[in-house]
Design a protein that fits this description.
14% strand
Length: 493
């Protein structure tokens, strides 16, 4: 398949041309949420980043199998091998079954993802639904000599693994230095080395989530879940593994090691990571208590929010920064995103009303194709959405020039322009019009007032005509007269 897509491979620390193993098929695995709380803005960034990749790969003609898991067991509060299971901890606090908690927050996550117009993954496996496969995976690692049983738990032997392969190459961590600075955590004396990580954990008395296993009742380690589920649906080696930057170590580093230990090969060829959303420079997250849930963003019900922000405003806000760059939350940035989103969609609405014409300086297909090439170059350069948006906004100047009659456009060029904006904005970037019941009702009222204004103008009742326009402006409705009638927009967001 002909394309010039390059993506940044964290494993190589450089951009590489994307070449799938088995074209036209692409296998992509992305670490999904741990469902113990409401989805927040940080979740949105990861979902939108890989949604755009999913959309663009399909746009290029690939048949993509996109697997994104739901972690409903095994993710401990310390993000390593200590603490209580995050889902079970929430269940205990709320006096619910852990699966009630997981199901409740998974439903909320899916609702928010639909609001943000992210496409559902091809497969969305639950960690708790693949315990048998995970046990078999652990058995292979044990049989290959890279793990050991201790007190009913099974741990990955990092020291033994390092005799054969490099450990730490994804994160670039100095493992000798890390090992000397890693303290032995309470209750983990059963480990041979502090860097060893759990493949299977013995369930302590009162632990709510447990399964029978050859090593006793317990539950799978967080890292082994993703290795098992990705390879079950994509094969032992697949194309892309994605996730947030905070997952590089230890989660993804451990995935690389245990996959090689089980199969003799590393799982993913390209490792992609989106950067964090921050508030005042600090990573946003539930564990830090500084997160803003998506429901709060959409309703405005959070003390740091000055107003509610629509799902497409949030999506546009996230797309304004390159996925590998940090993105700091602010009300000002979200308000600016809303204006940018409205400007882009207003230009697309204007484009739909344009008719071919032979006015001076007529736009021909070649000029539109130059714009299309610039858009493709931005996408092919590691999904550079900010540059892509800049190119699309450059094209809006051309759209308004044609709409105002300053330039004409051929029928072929107009069709290509409509195709370019439709495919790029709607299909690849996933931006869509937001029309609520209130907006439709407001539109009908404005149409009635503008009909009354037009009748006043026809009878030369200029006082009434001006009063209608001025009162609409005072109410925050901007009216722009055009050769085909009028356009309106709400200004006071």
């Amino acid at each position: 398949m002909e394309h010039d897509l390059v993506i940044y491979n964290t494993l190589k620390r450089e951009k590489e041309r994307f070449e799938p193993l088995h074209p036209p098929f692409v296998g992509m695995y992305v670490c999904g949420p741990t469902v113990y709380g409401d989805a927040h803005l940080g979740h949105a960034r990861a979902a939108i980043t890989f949604d755009v990749l999913f959309r663009y790969l399909k746009f290029l003609g690939y048949k993509v199998r996109y697997v994104r898991n739901i972690t409903d067991v095994g993710h401990l509060a310390g993000d390593a091998d200590e603490g209580e299971d995050k889902v079970a901890k929430e269940a205990r606090a709320r006096e619910l079954e852990p699966m009630e908690v997981a199901n409740h927050y998974a439903i909320g996550y899916h609702k928010n993802m639909e609001q943000l117009n992210t496409l559902p993954p091809s497969i969305e496996p639950l960690a708790s639904g693949h315990v048998i496969e995970q046990q078999e995976f652990v058995k292979r690692i044990l049989a290959n000599g890279f793990a050991y049983e201790s007190g009913g738990s099974v741990y990955f032997d990092v020291k033994r693994y390092r005799e054969r392969r490099a450990y730490g190459k994804l994160s670039g961590r100095n493992i000798d230095e890390l090992e000397s600075n890693t303290r032995q955590l309470d209750g983990q004396e059963e480990k041979r080395d502090p860097l060893d990580f759990a493949l299977w954990k013995k369930a302590a008395p009162g632990h709510l989530m447990r399964w029978p296993s050859p090593w006793g009742e317990g539950f799978p380690g967080w890292h082994v879940e993703c290795s098992c589920m990705s390879q079950k649906y994509l094969g032992e080696t697949f194309d892309i593994h994605g996730g947030g930057l905070d997952l590089i170590f230890p989660h993804h580093e451990c995935e690389i090691a245990q996959s090689a230990a089980a199969n003799g090969r590393e799982a993913a060829r390209y490792w992609m990571h989106n950067n964090m959303i921050t508030i005042n420079g600090q990573k946003m997250g539930k564990s830090l208590g500084n997160f803003i849930t998506l429901d709060q963003l959409f309703s405005g019900e959070n003390e740091v929010l000055e107003q509610a922000y629509s799902p497409m405003t949030v999506r546009f806000f996230i797309l304004q920064a390159h996925y590998r760059s940090p993105l700091d939350f602010s009300n000002e940035a979200l308000k600016a995103a809303r204006k940018g989103y409205e400007r882009l969609l207003a230009a697309m609405a204007a484009l739909e009303k344009i008719a071919p014409s032979g006015a001076e300086g007529r736009v021909e297909t070649e000029e539109v194709e130059a714009l299309a090439r610039a858009c493709r170059e931005a996408l092919n350069d590691d999904l550079n959405a900010p540059v892509l948006l800049a190119r699309l906004f450059e094209g809006t100047h051309l759209i308004y020039s044609i709409a105002a009659g300053a330039r004409g456009i051929s029928e072929e060029a107009l069709a290509r322009m409509k195709q370019l904006y439709g495919e790029t904005v709607r299909e690849v970037l996933g931006l869509k019009e937001e029309t609520t019941h209130d907006a439709r009702l407001l539109g009908k009222v404005i149409d009635m007032l503008m009909d009354a204004r037009e009748r006043a103008r026809q009878t030369k009742d200029w006082a009434t005509s001006d009063r209608i326009r001025d009162e609409l402006k005072e109410a925050g409705i901007a009216i722009k007269d055009t050769k085909d009638g009028y356009e309106w927009r709400v200004e006071n967001h």
